[in-house]
Amino acid sequence: MRQLGEKRCHPFEIPRHLLAVTACRGADVDEFFPERGESLLAARRLCAGCTVREECLEFALAQGIGCGVWGGVSERERRGIRGRSAPRCKRCRVAMPG
Known about the structure:
The protein is an all-alpha fold. About 35% of the residues lie in helices and about 0% in strands. The chain has helices at about 15-20, 40-50, 55-65, 75-85.
């Protein structure tokens, strides 16, 4: 069983203050990184009761993490959120000041 942060899309460091209180701490990380066509339900259920759900989602959005379920939100859903947020540079995708 992999630990959070050991992901196949790209490495990232999850802030310790989030890890200390997440509902997913100790859960099977594969539930949060399902293969195409697999259910997201188990991850969403854990996220639904998490006290840092919003912070987790904000972290994934800020880091540009394009894989897995973060804050109960899928990869596809995060792409939609990013598309509605601050305009981004078309070349490097960094958020531009409003």
